[in-house]
Amino acid sequence: MCGIVGYIGPRDATPIVLNGLKRLEYRGYDSAGLAVLQNSHIEVRRDAGKLARLSALVNEAPVHGHVGIGHTRWATHGAPSARNAHPHLGMTGNVVVVHNGIVENFLELRAELSAEGVVFKSDTDTEVIVHLVERYLATDTALPEAVRRALLLLKGAHGVVVLSSKEPDKIVAARIGNAGGVVVGFGEGEMFVASDMPAILEHTRQMVFLESRQMAVITSQGLEVQTLEGKAVQYEIHSVAWDPVAAEKGEYRHFMQKEIHEQVRSLTDTIAGRVDFEEGRIRLPELNLTPELAQRIRKIVITACGTASHAGMVGKVLIERIARLPVEVDIASEFRYRDPIVDHDTVVLAISQSGETADTLAAMEEARRKGAILWANVNVIGSQAMRVADGYISMQTGPEIGVASTKAYTAPLVDLYMLAVLLADLRGVLDEQTRRRLVNDLRLVPDLAGRCLDREAEVEKVARALVNTRHCLYLGRGINMPTAYEGALKLKEISYIHAEGYPAGEMKHGPIALIDKDMPVVVIALRDPWYEKMFSQIEQAKARGGTVVALATDGDSLIATKADHVVWLPETPWMLSPAIAVIPLQMLAYHIAALRGLDVDQPRNLAKSVTVE
Ligand code: F6R
């Protein structure tokens, strides 16, 4: 996952930036770089590979100065290489930028800038930012104003840090949405900036966390914060605890809350390097999926446990719909005892955050014994599931500490979507226009997730209304039926409230008998192909005196008149909606459990990795 560090003050910036990047190394990255202001001139060192490579470059050609910024990059647009690594210099060589996030409208902006005569030197989306800043600097605008105007043109979620040799006394940093945070640290006559606290914690515990759409102008003596609309902001300085675990939690009360908020970043990283937006194609090289193999596959069996199995259920809808391949979903603990029908033309795809779940590994073993092609979608690199598979897709979420899985649920949803598109492409069942549209829609995901996160206060209000409930029913249909299962699982495991997810169409076959005023019903009723059916569920629940919490698409005024509580979601392409719709349900479960004063991160009787059968 991308990381940012910056320093301004009397000391040499280079070692401070390098050390800060080192502290972010655990997040994973494929290239690294830094820019330091040396004698009024910006010096950049960057390359693909690990920080040892960057340190070697700095040793070969040393660079010293009192202002510097650095970056570790997970490739999104363009391969990991020296030319695509951050920082990115503008045409004048006077401005340099590091960036986390995806510039959703970069193709449009790049075309516009090219028409103005800009020559691009990388394949990245980030490079448009530095050229936009230079566009405004050329009209005698000061750096903060030029950055502000440039940022107003970007779509998506971003963390951005900018340096100019013409204004060497400042660093400008901004946060838009939730592509990771931007934290500014106070020292004695020196200041720090980073995407994550651990990067600067050895220097300071006095921190300011930028909110979305805020920009900081940082000098060695302090900072000024303004909104992107140019309004001055009074900021609050937080004194953070020294304890490294608490520090890792950052501004959040629990790891689960932090991990819910990390999803903009993890979803950005999930599509990073796997999507060629220009060609409209998907690349999943570790899967070892050749066109011949794609043609040969007759069936896919997805096997997993718990939350991962819910991801598999969404995968079934996606792969069947997009790639026209039959998919079965099998709970891993059932699979091996059922004498499953799989052969060498069947793919068995195991989904597992830990890659060490005993039942999932046993299912993989059984599949191997029967000669199936074995794939894994795992988070923990080097885990057993990854090692035994013939091919894998790694979830790009970084470590997940909260026992209840959140970011390791949404990542596989997007992985499975990409897999479906890739399979369809290789099997020749997708016309170019549809393929391009499906690929293009991926650009929207991180920002849509961020827009849900921005509405946490609304979800918390609903949590307050439900905090004393003893039961809860979750209803969904079609691609969001598994979202209902997952919402219910989250609630039961951390709040100990009895919750059930149900396919909405099954209501009339039994569960409807349960509905009364003491049984709240969470209904996922988005503007998708199942909308009308879901709307009628709301009416039926209301007719029986139930309290309805509806998940609805922005602007659906009809639902607002029917449901007791509405949690609004931004309009989302329906095939990607499970990754977005589950976020408010994660937040709902989280806030109910937190309000009940429970141990959210380590719920009773549960383990993060279930290595026993
Ligand atoms: C629920 C949860 C569990 C896991 C399940 C599988 O929040 O975390 O249901 O999803 O134990 O674990 P992995 O994905 O590690 O195989």
How is this structure best described in words?
This protein is an alpha/beta fold and 613 residues long. It has 21 helices and 27 strands. The structure holds fructose -6-phosphate. Fructose -6-phosphate binds next to α10 and α18.
Feature tags:
binds fructose -6-phosphate; 8-stranded antiparallel beta sheet; 7-stranded antiparallel beta sheet; alpha/beta; 613 residues
Furnish the topology, listing elements before pairings.
Elements: E1 3-8, H1 13-23, E2 31-38, E3 41-48, H2 51-60, E4 67-73, E5 88-89, E6 95-101, H3 106-115, H4 127-137, H5 143-151, E7 158-164, E8 171-176, E9 183-186, E10 191-194, E11 206-209, E12 214-219, E13 222-227, E14 232-233, E15 238-239, H6 244-249, H7 255-261, H8 263-271, E16 275-276, E17 281-282, H9 291-296, E18 299-304, H10 306-323, E19 327-331, H11 332-335, E20 346-352, H12 358-369, E21 373-378, H13 384-388, E22 391-394, H14 407-427, H15 432-441, H16 445-453, H17 456-466, E23 471-476, H18 481-495, E24 498-503, E25 521-525, H19 531-543, E26 548-553, H20 557-562, E27 565-569, H21 577-595
Bound molecules: fructose -6-phosphate.
Summarize the structure.
With 613 residues, this protein is α/β, with parallel strands linked by helices. It is built from 21 helices and 27 strands.
